[in-house]
Amino acid sequence: MGESVLFEFLHREMVTRVHSQAGDTEHGKCISILEGMGFRAGQGLIERFTKEAPAFKDELDVMKFICKEFWTNLFRKQIDNLRTNHQGTYVLQDNRFRLLTPVSNGKQYLEEAPKFLAFTCGLVRGALSNLGIDSTVTAEVSVMPACKFHIIMQKP
User: Fold this and answer.
1) Helix crossing, 27-49 with 2-22: angle to 10°?
2) Average pLDDT of the residues of the chain
3) Closest residue by Cα to residue 126 from 151, 148, 145, 146
4) Going by C-beta distance under 8 Å and a sequence separation of 6 or more, which residues neighbour residue 38?
5) Is the distance from CB of 35 to CB of 118 less than 8 angstroms?
6) Cα 155 off chain centre by
7) SS3 93
8) How many other CB atoms sit within 10 Å of the CB of residue 7?
9) Integer CA distances (angstroms), 47 to 71, 122, 126, 142, in order
10) What is the pLDDT of residues 80-138, one digit of tens each?
């Protein structure tokens, strides 16, 4: 319990710091910085989490690991829903995303959601990258604190 609160606090402070240093005019740059930080963290974390794991058979096997083990290690719960079109596109749905919960008091924060999701998009993309899968990860929020992460695998 204690470490999850620390992670939430660290994340919130990281987002605030990056945005305060860049100012309001460079929103895209802030998102990119946070996503890059998440990418590097995701690469390191997936190495630790897969140390004892058996080899993955395919992309779907990797995505199941991300939804169960990776997500649980980070957010203390599994992804609520995983969908795929079996052509390299996956949608991960978290109905109560832990990093959005503190700012989910009303609609006024809906436009602020992307800055709180950029780091997590980077975490997932970095983890997949370290497992040999190039991908694009984006997030979508329609009702807070629920969110969807769209993952598109890049074909070689």
Assistant:
1) 150
2) 88
3) 151
4) 118, 119, 120, 121, 122, 123, 124, 125, 126
5) yes
6) 21
7) strand
8) 15
9) 14, 15, 11, 33
10) 999 999 899 999 999 999 888 777 676 667 777 888 899 999 999 999 999 999 999 99
